[in-house]
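Hypothesis: this fold can be encoded by more than one sequence.
Test: take the structure tokens below, design a sequence, compare later.
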């Protein structure tokens, strides 16, 4: 049987990500499977695995897109803000609104556990670091004489307080 080549690798990637996100939105991430994604895009599971290493890799890319959307909204909220306390509160409000508006994708970022042998790629770690940086930037004007390390620690404590430890 000849290999189907209706779409480029990049087109397949985008189709798979869009289909997977739709499945997550409708069914929660527990409803996500490689078979469902492949069926939704009209390709085999084998073709899906030519684009993504495994289901964890697909989920990692979905989570990255979710973090990008959240980062964009949080950054936009800060563009017009000029009072440090209100800016920090506004970050929190945008975050909570995002989680309420898109609970399944948001939950997948925090609830999906990767296999023990999977190394989280640097590009994904950078997306997480950008989120912490927004909180750190929000805390800096309120920090007084505190060092950068103390601000970083406070941002992580605040983040942990929001999500539970």
């Amino acid at each position: 049987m000849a290999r189907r080549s209706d779409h480029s690798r990049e087109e397949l990637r985008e189709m798979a990500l869009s289909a997977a996100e739709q499945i997550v939105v409708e069914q929660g991430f527990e409803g996500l499977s490689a078979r469902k994604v492949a069926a939704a895009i009209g390709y085999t599971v084998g073709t899906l695995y030519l684009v993504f290493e495994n289901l964890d890799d697909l989920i990692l890319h979905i989570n990255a897109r979710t973090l990008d959307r959240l980062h964009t909204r949080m950054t936009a909220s800060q563009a017009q803000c000029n009072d440090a306390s209100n800016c920090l509160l506004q970050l929190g409000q945008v975050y909570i609104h995002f989680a309420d508006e898109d609970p399944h994708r948001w939950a997948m970022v925090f609830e999906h556990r990767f296999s023990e042998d999977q190394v989280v790629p640097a590009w994904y770690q950078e997306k997480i670091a950008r989120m912490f940086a927004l909180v750190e930037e929000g805390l800096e004007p309120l920090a007084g004489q505190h060092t950068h390390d103390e601000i970083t620690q406070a941002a992580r404590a605040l983040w942990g307080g929001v999500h539970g430890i």
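The radius of gyration is 19 Å. The chain has eight helices and no strands.
Hypothesis status: open.
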